[in-house]
Amino acid sequence: MEVRKTNGEFEPYDKEKLKRTICAAYSSVGDECNDVLLDTVINNLYLYDKISTAEIRRQVEEWLMSVNKKAAKEYIRFYVSDDELKKRGDFITDYIRATNASTGSSYDANANVANKNIATLNAEIPKFGNIKFNRRNTAARIKKLYSNKLSKQYIADLENHILYKHDESSFGVNSPYTYSSKEIVEVLYNGKNLLLPLDLLYDIVDEDEKLVNNEKVVYQKEPWHLYVKDRDDEFTRVTKLTRKKRHRPLLRIKTSFGEDVVVTDNHPMIQYIDNIENTIEAKDSLGINQYRVGTKINFKGCNTIDFKKILPTWVDVEDKFIKYQQSVIRREIKVDRNLGYVIGFFVGDGNYNNTSKSLGFTQADKEILKDLNNKIYDIFGIAGKIKKENEKTSEKYVLRLANQYVYELFRGYFKIQDKAWNKTLPYNILEFNEEFAKGCLEGLIDSDGSIKPNDSSISIRLSSRACVLQATYLFRHFGYSIGNTKQSLPFSNNESYKTNYTIWGITATKRVDSTVLDGSFKYRDNITTAKESFLKYKPVGYCKITSVDEIEPESSFYDLNEYIYDITTETHTFTSNNILVHNCVAIQSYPFLTDGLKGLGGLSAAPENIDSYCGMFVNLIFAVSSQFAGAVACAGFFNMMDAFARKEWGDDYNKYANSFYKIGHKLRKLLNASHYWTSNVEELASHDFGSDELNKLRDEIVFESERPLTEDELAEYLEKVRKDPKYTLKLGDGTRTIRGQIHQYFQQVVYGINQPAAARGFQSAFVNFGYFDKPYFEGMYGEFVFPDGRKPQWDTVSFLQKEFMKWFNKERTRCVLTFPVETMSMLYVDGKYVDEEYADFTAEMLAEGHSFFIYTSDSPDTLSSCCRLSNKIQENTFTFTNGLTGEQTGSKSVITLNFSRIMQNYVNEKCDGNRDAFKNDKEKFMEGFKEYLNPILERVYKYHTAYNSILWELYEANMLPVYSAGFIHLNKQYLTLGINGMNEAWMFLGGECTYNKDYLYFTTQITGYMKEQNALHRTRKEMFNTEFVPAENLGIKNYKWDKKDGYWVPEGRNCYTSYFFLPDDTNISVLDKMKLHGRENVSSLDGGSANHIQLDHHLTFEQYRKLLDFAGEVGCNYWTVNVKNSECKSCGYISKETIDKCPKCGGTEFDYWTRIIGYLRRVSDFNEGRQIEEGKRYYSKDIE
Amino acid sequence: MSVKYIPEDTTVVFSEIPDEITLAVNISNCQNNCKGCHSPYLKEDRGCILTCDVIDGLIERNRGITCFCFMGEGNDADGFRKLAEHISEKWENVKIGVYSGRENVEKWYSEVFDYVKIGPYMPEYGPLDNPETNQRLFYKNPIYSGVSEMGKGWEDVTYKFWSKPKILSGEIV
What we know:
The complex is a heterodimer of chains A (1184) and B (173). With 1184 residues, chain A is α+β, with helices and mostly antiparallel strands. Chain A is built from 38 helices and 52 strands. In chain A, strands 5, 6, 7, 8, 9, 10 and 30 form a 7-stranded antiparallel β-sheet that branches. In chain A, helix 3 (53-67) runs antiparallel to helix 4 (69-79) and helix 17 packs across helix 18. Chain A starts with a strand and ends in an 8-residue tail after the last helix. Residues 81-93, 104-123, 125-129, 167-177, 490-498, 577-604, 758-762 and 863-889 of chain A have low confidence and may be disordered. Chain B is an alpha/beta fold and 173 residues long. The mean pLDDT of chain B is 90. The interface between A and B is large, with 41 and 30 residues.
């Protein structure tokens, strides 16, 4: 016998070596290991050829754990490195102790989670597995497309920190997992314990079915009280059941213990390597470890069935009888072994006659039928008739039982389906007793089973996979060991019997301690011996996948699986056929998306008014963001909202913003009493109603007050209204103006999207909103037509944009809201902003302390869709089905190059480690570097291509709903090459990161070369661009990794920068930052870069306006201004300025808010590394 | 004698001249003797000689500034005038400012400069952003038709230091 080592090689099994290791474990804890124990352990291992060493270790571990825990731990320690143990055990402790959620996260420190809690911890844990899954998945694809060598190189590049693949910790795009319709699960539904196939489960769940995707035919139900068995034999709550059209081949995965599961070929199976969960696609899963879950059946013990509770109508006849239709029957029947037998028999060899509502049982052996008929009589008090089925062609007999109520019992109550391939044992079998279950098996054996003479094995062959699986469940419970089940097309000597029905079979072997099933004739007559219980059935543990077979496409089983099923649970796993399996995580958030989408496409579930639009928008954001790791950009938010606003209030609603939209009770009273009418709040506020009572009422309304006003309050209020007519937004009695209502919607949307999203591990969705100036807007939406035929209207959209910006800026003085991240896009042509009014407005907003990104372009062909991403829009076409996430662009995958490390490797390998090599001959140096960079880039292009092919495969399998639905198109998205460590590479060469010629030469040589290569590698399916990535988290990681591995890193810092300048440089001027992020550098960065200007105080309107002009002039196309906002810790007062004394309460303790990189956050919520970095940032000050 | 400036102090600022992006150049050899001076080292003879070429270099390197401001006048009045005139002739789009500590300035100032700050720093009246300040900043505003101490068309813009930009902050109730 051979064992497989972790490196994949085989060696002979060495019992002595194993003994030595166990002894060593004992002696290292000071205990002695005796031979008896050693032999017991060694001889009780379940070994098979080519077993993995890991599996042997696991089994030994299990044994040792039961006899000597200390030694077991020591034994484990031999194999698991300290590092790994630490990782496993300490993560949770670390997370709990971490100062905040960002710091605690080891895999996604950019998580914008404000508070740690159990939910965020739960969300962290699977990221570990996801990274492995994603990495492995991509590596496998690289291997397939290119070579094994390149695939290994991919892992090496990632592990050597030359490259970084972004968002590995989440399934950047979702892959829903699906099961064949006949896989069985044990569930608890409305308090009942059921054992049934997925299709039946789906049917019996009461909740309404929703069509969540019309085109792909996906339905869902959201059950309320459904639980499914999960690991540890516990029930977990089911949140969704999904039924969808099958598009992929089905595979049957079998394990060494005889379990099997039928899934789609890309289903991620849970794999265990050294006790760590991992996932691997079903088609590649041969040989991996599976976790089996115990099948401890607890029969509920119900002994009788009351027909009064089953039948729709009945008439009491006597004490114990009732009349149903034409028959008189016993009111109560016993649920016992006999009833089980009849049912088992029926499932095996019975059929319904649906017209006469009768049951038929077919058998060649008339004696068996007679016995069956006796049993039927005992149970029901009635009997059927036996006759020869068809005297000419067959030797078979039929027992026909023409009783509707038995029919109702079988079909309605036990849910035994029509047609052999759909039949199952009673779905509620677990509700009854063990005897009943025994009877069911015995009936099955006598009808469709066979016994191998003088052997102790029973085999059952059925066309119903679900029934076979149920029987497996029960046989296990009764102590039988299950041989590998079989699937085959039926064989028959008789041509007329030949069908394409798939036959499923199991072999159950009797062990000495198995329950005797002697209610069966066949059993009684044949099984006399029993195999020794050499291997006690282990309810929990690992087993291996021993075969992966594709289900023959021509078989009937394929037809049965026109639809496939999935269960979504709270724990994301559940047990099916004894194997712990994954659920689908992402598809659950889909429903609203299609509604919203379809709506804009003009179908039924469309948002019909501004109310439903704003409500559904939040849902849409959550739905989309659950499927994307990155940001969701909604360039078209205002354009869409405007369309609904116009529908609601007319095309010129902007001119009537102060008009009443809703009249509250007090205003109504006032108007009725006075017969005075005004549509205008200002007029109302200053109108004299001529009576103290009415004037008082007026003041209460306009002051948002339920109480009479004091003189001072009133004076103050009137003063405010006089100064700023817009002051009155909301009125005290529910009266609202159009403006007030619009603000109400803003509030709904903004607070909605800032809610932590459960599907994202309690992070908020990353949302970006876009503002446009007039020419930009016309360029973007000039050709746009709404489904109802209307066209976008600039005046009102502009009004909405401005209202929103002002409202949002003000709202942020009440609560510092992180999302949306805003971008103002403006057109700058021939030395000036085309829309001066918007440039002025932008400067005005900045001067009022609003912080947002500014994007300038010389043609509206690019859209800043992410925090910084600028992707060229290929064609000026718009999909009318969306408009919400807008312009269908962005990155589908980012791989970032660590230039600091690459540069140092280059200098060491090619320039004899001479750091002055650039200074000596910069042209030669850069040429050499490009040559050095080339093979790295080549690899990145291949890695991207491999990943892209996975995406396309998912897309073609209809698994990327956001794409399929037209939100985004894969072809329009970029594969992005990220840059990090650029400044550090330059500093390594002795350069200064200021605006100087050498630095520009250095950076543009690299980015220009990458741009050129991107263009060369472009294909129909792959487009590449280069981005100076924000690297919130990566900047810190790269610094740490490089420092640890002995590379040069700049002193006094903890992070690689995300800008061309150094954020802690106190000498560089605001203007130089603009120039460094100006045309020369950013023109080659077709994926974008962002310039963050940190200031210690806000500037005046004129100064911002001049800065805007300068940005346009030097071509600094994406920038923002950050002045730290202050939030008083004692009274919560918020200032847009950086202050150290609270003007409200005099407090001196502040929380400051600034952009970690892209979005605004409380500094104390940054991860530790970023907090340190933030402390070093230089906020430009003036001289004292 | 020559005009000297402190290169390491030279920086782009926003507060010194309202509404402008200003390159502030500290001039040494200050002849004033203000009590409580913030930068007494500027009274010393230190820094580098400021020439027309140096100024051109500074303005080129800091492209984007809208104002070049001498923080002080030094002790070489003629040299200082030459430099100021050089800027006004050569750099059309760059305004010229001066922070003078004196109460009165020569007449040519009103022809060459766009911004002139006059008056010594006096601790009891505080700096420019204190509404009690004795110092004044004048701006030769092309659209201003009034008359001030500096002459016709010179607007006293000291008030701009007091009325801070309209920054939204939480309401203090």
